[in-house]
């Protein structure tokens, strides 16, 4: 199930974000979470399987018609089950009138999902 990030999910979100190569440093990780919490153009979503939050996808609303995926992460014990692709699909459904693009860290995964990127 695709759910919007809330403050009470902060520790879980930070744990999932820490799997991203750019988010290994604690200070950087805290800045990223703060960005998602305080900037309306930055949106963070979580993926829940039964009672566990196992994935995360974060986006930047770049323009009226563009959503850029900044972060995508799945708990290692839940990888290779299609969760990342399900999150991308849910993101497309959340923003049906916008084009999905990737940053340098998410481009290779987004390519696998057959979405567009620049």
UniProtKB/TrEMBL annotation:
Pfam families: Acetyltransf_1. Gene3D superfamilies: 3.40.630.30. Residues 3-118 form the N-acetyltransferase domain. It comes from the Bacteria. One of its GO terms (molecular function) is acyltransferase activity, transferring groups other than amino-acyl groups. InterPro entries: Acyl_CoA_acyltransferase, GNAT_dom. Keywords: Acyltransferase, Transferase. This is Protein RibT. It comes from Geobacillus subterraneus.
